[in-house]
Design brief:
heterodimer, A: 442 residues, Urease, subunit C, domain 1, TIM Barrel, 2 domains, eight-stranded mixed β-sheet, six-stranded mixed β-sheet, 13 helices, B: 421 residues, alpha/beta, nine-stranded mixed β-sheet, 11 helices, 16 strands
């Protein structure tokens, strides 16, 4: 059961009426002080005996126990012997069963993955058990452009709207998924070669440039504006930097092609997978392109991944490339995302950069580093309580907190089922929190 | 050719061969190395009794000559010496398709499954194994020295399996056991993919087909026993293979995930008095009383196997622990992967099991001595004991820790050239 600490405010407007009116809940959690853990804040030195103070869903303070005052109104939680680190940021996930583009066209920028995600999918609960708090949920790689991705907080939600991360105007945030190489090649209307792939992409972006030019020329004159076009609008978002391109790419020459296209059209790009990134690490560094990589247990499975090596993270680190990890769930299990950083260290990454690659590096790629990815005052209270060092196989995620609310607790049998598996673990989320069962569980 | 190859080789003949120092004349490449190799380990997990602190393993003629604390087992003069923090027996992957399913995953390097017929026990593993497949070398780099590989799950009876060392320039140099088991599948995996008109289309049909095949082989054996030469049947490779199951010369390896399918396998074993080895067993924890009652060993699915939807949606990180606590003999496997990664590494799978209730020693057993027992090769490998094959893995820390490296691999007394992984 997701334990919550709600302040219950009973509106007292006369005793007779009070019985008729429903209870009104203050959804803001009480302040919490987590005391005694080793804290891995990311971007700052590890704190041996630390205090983390969380209020109203954000981090109020983080520091050594000796010099950090616990507020009088805070609920004090002793976490001595534990390790606290920021919630993990997964830059590339497919959980929720979302599909983007269909087989009618290789380029479909109007398609939004958010229209097809089942937020009750048990994959989200398993991801909570793995400590994932921020996700970039993407459509697949079988298209040159398979649609708009969506950035979410991995909270318990009833709808995608409940969990989507929004800008200050309330717009749901996300990127644009693209791919090159073999996955996106197929029979017509799909491209049959790499050059054809690039040509189709360039033609579409040239069209979007023209559309954008007409928009700019029309300025505020609605008469002269081009007709609304959902595909073009989405690509204008990309051209103007409001949507980051998340680009699946494996082979060394495909990576260079992505960099060439990004330069030609000026879009922001994150290179995903980059199995042969180690062969062109200098070129990636020169283009200042961030890489979101995956480490899998063996090379191959397809020709493009034949030269995938565990050393990629370490080699990119040496050239100064901003590097994050992703699960590509279901390719790797969200419950074991911490493992990827440890494998990175095994093959040459520094501990510091490997842990950043699970947190702040991914946050930067999603342009959410002002809110998530490290433990610092003012940031969202997304954090994990671990039983031990984040890089050890024996360490368990004990609790996952998002926006100051506990979403996973290994001590709770219902949550534990999703952490370890077993009968029923494949079933969709059981709706057991306030909105479904009523407030009796508080 | 080191071994008499062929279909008919059975356990008895193997036991006889095991008495002969096969590798003494096995054509291993000549080497200028010292004849005697000694491995020093801060901790040696022999898997035959307690771990030895500050120990030594002495290797001579491809076999383990002695093992014990450094005080009792001196390093022989002139021996080549390797040192490591942790030494284990060479690891055993109790079931995989390495060498059959190539890492490039193209049609031409996939030989683990012929989908054209649902029952093909006559397909020999030695005719399909590629010892130079990149994944053989890859898993060896993590300390895996023996693999049980061959025809994959995915057909009612897909073919035979074999046991090889992860070395050798050709299949004969690699072979430890040319015919290990006959691989069957129950449940969704037994249904022919993409052709709804082909049988078996249902679970019941699958069991009926297996029973019919076994009854046919009973009849074949009966005729073979006839005193009347005219009544003896013509040779039939398929019937010969199934007969070996009935004669308990070979175990039937049944991949089954749902409790329903596991119970069907147990029922089949009872009816025909088969030597059964359960494989996969995602829902094994639901029927462990039944598995235990028949004393059936389990080669469990990879701990980190994808759960997804369907047959494996109920898999658990803790199944190895649950079955082991019930004294069921459990080994772990890397299994079959159709995409990325092309193979799992059984060392990693055991690590996750260790961290999920199984504990270090039992987890290491699942990829050493338990695997050797289930595969019936514990006279050769699976523990560090005098007389056994000199297969060892060397690590710079707890082998299960993600950040530990395998720093040395010894197979048949020879140190491989692998880079630390």
């Amino acid at each position: 059961m997701k334990t919550r600490y709600f302040a219950v405010l009973l509106t007292l407007c006369g005793s007779a009426r009070a019985q008729e009116k429903p209870l009104v809940f203050d959804m803001r959690p009480l302040p919490h002080a987590f005391v005694g853990a080793r804290i891995v804040p990311i971007g700052a030195p590890e704190i041996e005996n630390g205090v983390l103070i969380v209020r109203s869903g954000t981090i109020e303070a983080v520091g050594p126990a000796a010099s950090t005052t616990v507020p009088a109104d805070a609920r004090r939680i002793d976490v001595a012997g534990m390790v606290i680190m920021p919630g993990l940021v997964d830059t590339h996930s497919h959980i929720g069963g979302g599909w983007g583009a269909d087989s009618s066209d290789p380029i479909q920028p109007d398609v939004r993955v958010l229209d097809s995600i089942n937020v009750r999918d048990s994959g989200f609960q398993k991801a909570q058990a793995g400590g994932l708090t921020t996700l970039n949920v993407m459509p697949g790689s079988g298209h040159l452009l398979s649609g708009q991705t969506v950035y979410i907080k991995n909270k318990d939600g009833r709808t995608i709207e409940d969990v989507a991360i929004r800008d200050k105007d309330g717009n749901m945030l996300g990127g644009m998924k693209m791919a090159n190489g073999t996955n996106s090649q197929s029979g017509p209307p799909f491209p049959g070669t790499r050059s054809k792939s690039a040509a189709l992409v360039r033609q579409k972006y040239v069209k979007a440039q023209e559309y954008r030019r007409k928009l700019m020329e029309a300025r505020d004159d609605p008469e002269n504006r081009p007709e609304r076009d959902l595909e073009m609008e989405a690509l204008v978002d990309v051209l103007e930097g409001r949507r980051v391109v998340h680009h699946h790419t494996h082979r060394n020459d495909d990576i260079i092609t992505v960099l060439r296209l990004a330069k030609e059209f000026g879009f922001k790009v994150v290179l995903h997978h980059v199995s042969e990134g180690w062969k062109v690490a200098d070129e990636i560094a020169a283009a200042n392109a961030p890489c979101s990589i995956i480490l899998v247990d063996s090379p191959g499975g397809k020709i493009e991944a034949a030269n995938l090596v565990m050393q990629t993270g370490g080699m990119l680190e040496k050239t100064g490339v901003l590097t994050a990890f992703h699960t590509d769930d279901p390719i790797t299990d969200s419950r074991l995302f911490l493992r990827m950083a440890a494998l990175g260290v095994r093959a040459g990454m520094s501990r510091e950069k490997a842990l950043e690659a699970l947190t702040i590096a991914g946050a930067r790629m999603l342009e959410l580093d002002g809110r998530v990815g490290s433990l610092a005052p003012g940031k969202d209270a997304d954090f994990l309580i671990l039983s031990g060092d984040p890089l050890s196989v024996y360490t368990k995620v004990e609790q996952t907190w998002i926006d100051g609310i506990k979403v996973f607790d290994r001590a709770d049998p219902k949550d534990r089922l999703f952490a370890v598996g077993g009968y029923g673990a494949g079933h969709d989320q059981v709706m057991h929190f306030c909105c479904f069962e009523g407030p009796h569980d508080q | 050719m080191k071994y008499p190859s062929g279909l008919g080789r059975n356990r008895l003949s193997r036991a006889v061969h095991a008495c002969v120092p096969l590798f003494a004349f096995s054509g291993l490449p000549e080497s200028a190395e010292a004849d005697v190799l000694a491995i020093k380990g801060e901790t040696i997990h022999t898997m035959a009794g307690n771990a030895i602190e500050n120990g030594v393993v002495v290797i001579e003629d491809a076999k383990i000559k002695s093992v014990g604390p450094a005080a009792d087992v001196p390093v022989p003069p002139g021996a080549r010496v390797l040192s490591a923090r942790v030494v284990t027996p060479g690891l055993i992957d109790a079931h995989c398709v390495i060498g059959f399913t190539g890492y490039l995953n193209q049609d031409q390097d996939q030989d683990q499954l012929d989908p054209n017929e649902s029952i093909q026990p006559e397909l020999r593993a030695i005719d399909g194994y590629n010892p130079q497949e990149k994944l053989v070398e890859y898993v060896r780099g993590y300390g895996i020295t023996t693999i049980h590989t061959g025809h994959a799950p995915g057909a009612l009876i897909s073919g035979q399996t074999m046991i090889v060392k992860t070395t050798g320039n050709n299949v004969d140099e690699a072979i430890l056991e040319p015919v290990a088991m006959i691989a069957a599948t129950l449940g969704e995996g037994a249904k022919p993919h993409g052709d709804p008109k082909k049988s078996p289309g249902t679970r019941s049909k699958a069991v009926a087909m297996l029973r019919s095949e076994l009854v046919k082989a009973q009849n074949y054996l009966k005729k073979l026993d006839s005193d009347d030469e005219k009544k003896k049947p013509d040779r039939d490779l398929r019937m010969e293979a199934i007969s070996q199951l009935l004669k308990r010369e070979l175990p039937l390896l049944v991949t089954a995930h749902r409790a329903t399918d596991i119970l069907a396998a147990l029922r089949l074993a009872r009816e025909f008095n088969l030597r059964l080895v359960l494989d996969g067993c995602a829902e094994g924890y639901l029927v462990q009383d039944e598995i235990k009652a028949m004393n059936i060993p389990v080669i469990l699915h990879p701990t980190m196997w994808r759960s997804g939807r369907g047959e494996t949606e109920n898999i658990s990180f803790e199944t190895a622990s649950l079955l082991t606590k019930d004294l069921i003999l459990v080994a772990l496997q890397s299994g079959y992967e159709s995409y990325v990664p092309k193979t799992r590494v059984v060392l990693f799978e055991a690590g996750i099991a260790a961290a999920n209730g199984l504990g270090f020693n039992e987890a290491l057993s699942t990829i050493t001595i338990n695997a050797a027992r289930i595969l019936d090769i514990d006279d050769r490998v699976g523990s560090i004991e005098p007389g056994k094959d000199a297969d060892l893995a060397l690590y710079d820390g707890d082998p299960f820790e993600y950040t530990t490296h395998c720093i040395g691999v010894v197979i048949n007394g020879k140190v491989t050239n692998d880079q630390p992984q």
